[in-house]
TrEMBL record:
The keyword Nucleotide-binding applies. It comes from Pedobacter heparinus (strain ATCC 13125 / DSM 2366 / CIP 104194 / JCM 7457 / NBRC 12017 / NCIMB 9290 / NRRL B-14731 / HIM 762-3). This is UDP-N-acetylmuramate--L-alanine ligase. Cell wall formation. Its EC number is 6.3.2.8. Keywords: ATP-binding, Cell cycle, Cell division, Cell shape, Cell wall biogenesis/degradation, Cytoplasm, Ligase, Nucleotide-binding, Peptidoglycan synthesis.
Length: 451
């Protein structure tokens, strides 16, 4: 399907972070854009305020008239997270509409453009957001489809005036194999989505295929230590071709030097904490330098990047209380997040509220989750957020809690969590998870702000 032929687009699962970015893109192009999602969220409300019609009923009877008939210029975009028995999704299937996954649509959009794709089981949202910000802040420009809300732009979609497009390349369901980038970054390949891949070997195989999707004369940047033979290696503290060195904390900022075979950029300031974020910034700098952007402009852009919503986002930051929210939902992400908190606040008691995401992920990584969660000082564990999955026998939060060596731990519902925080008012609070734990943010913020 050719991009210029598309006049009407319906999104089944429009509230997803990646789906909503593409919805905004087509709305900017002047297309008729509508969609369905099961839950009203801040993101779907924002889409409605931008003029996009969103329905919360999975009922074909409420579809807009212009989407009832199958026309060649109508595109239906769906997410694999939508249940197979969705009435709206099956209406479109049964009536022969053109259906595409989000990743396939990104492939259509980026076809014929200069594509910069960032892949990885962790770090891709932050890295792609930094890349996009550096390109925009430096005046180079780009259009960007991001997997999070970039704080500088309060959006997951940024429209530019040139032919450069920055995309987050999602490994779930092998989605990134629809892309053919000119520049690509692979940040990590830790085992995840084993419900799709079965084992780590098949996940690695898909990343290897993605690396081969590069256009002729394209450049691949790969984090040092990943099982890939192609690409320029980057890292923090390792013997790689591109590296971050001399890392230190100055106030609330991380400061580092960028070094490659031709250039050193000294004393780069980064508002995002943690060595993992320095590594993400190093990859973004390498991409920007490959595009020929002046290193002084890159340094200034990195310093002005304020982060991504739900990626180590400060909700409360006062002398008495610090509350940080993060999207971490894999053991390695939790480890990186906790390490960053400890580096910044080594003397404070760390209270964590964690919501496991998916029954299969909880089952597959139970030992790893238990180990990293046992490193905090106090844990309040919510029940597992199922997302697209049905329950698995014996796999629940109690199953996970029983594996932890931590003494100060318990399972709480959301209401009990709020009461607990009201009563204890912890000095350092961290909420982590990828489900609907973000609905706790405002109530917890109000409690700690009103102290």
């Amino acid at each position: 399907m050719e991009l210029n032929h598309i006049q009407r687009v319906y999104f089944v699962g429009i509230g997803g972070i990646g789906m909503s970015a593409i919805a905004r893109y087509f709305a900017k192009r002047g297309c008729v854009v509508c969609g369905y999602d099961k839950t009203r969220t801040n993101l779907t409300v924002a889409l409605e305020q931008e003029g996009i019609l969103v329905s919360y009923l999975d009922d074909a009877a409420v579809l807009p008239v212009c989407f009832l008939a199958n026309n060649s210029d109508t595109l239906i975009v769906y997410t694999p997270a939508i249940p197979k028995n969705s009435e709206i999704l099956n209406y479109f299937k049964d009536n022969g509409f053109i259906l595409k996954k989000r990743s396939e649509v990104l492939g259509i959009i980026s076809k014929g453009q200069f594509c910069i794709a960032v892949a990885g089981t962790h770090g891709k949202t932050t890295t792609s957001s930094i890349v996009a910000h550096v390109l925009i802040d430096s005046g180079y420009g780009c259009t960007a489809f991001l997997g999070g809300i970039a704080s500088n732009y309060n959006s997951n979609f940024i429209i530019g005036n040139n032919n450069v497009v920055v995309v987050e390349a999602d490994e779930y369901d092998r989605s990134f194999l629809t892309l053919h980038p000119d520049l690509a970054v692979i940040t990590s390949m830790d085992a995840d989505h084993l419900d799709i891949y079965g084992d780590a070997a098949h996940l690695h195989e898909s990343f290897g295929l993605f690396a081969k999707q590069l256009k002729p004369q394209g450049t691949l940047f790969v984090r040092k230590g990943l099982p890939l033979t192609a690409g320029l290696s980057y890292s923090v503290g390792q013997d790689s071709q591109i590296k971050g060195q001399n890392i230190r904390v100055e106030g609330s900022k991380f400061v580092f030097d960028y070094v490659d075979t031709d250039l050193r950029i000294s004393d780069i300031q980064l508002m995002l904490p943690g060595k993992h974020n320095v590594e993400n910034a190093v990859a973004a700098i390498a991409v920007a330098l490959k595009l020929g952007i002046d290193h002084h402009k890159i340094k200034a852009a990195i310093a002005s990047f304020t982060g991504v919503k739900r990626r180590f986002e400060y909700i409360v930051n006062t002398p008495d209380h610090i509350y940080i929210d993060d999207y971490a939902h894999h053991p390695e992400e939790l480890r990186a997040c906790f390490d960053a908190v400890r580096q910044l606040y080594p003397d404070k008691k760390l209270t964590v509220i964690f919501q496991p995401h998916l029954f299969t992920r909880t089952r597959d990584f139970a030992a790893e989750f238990a180990k990293v969660l046992s490193t905090v000082d106090e844990l309040l564990l919510l029940e597992i957020y199922p997302a697209r999955e049905l329950p698995l026998p014996g796999i629940n939060s109690q199953f996970l809690l029983d594996k932890m060596s931590l003494k100060s731990k318990r399972i709480c519902g959301k209401d009990l969590v709020i009461e607990e925080i009201k009563n204890t008012k912890p000095e350092l609070l961290l909420t982590v998870g990828a489900g609907d734990i973000d609905t706790l943010i405002q109530p917890l913020k109000a409690i700690l702000r009103d102290v």
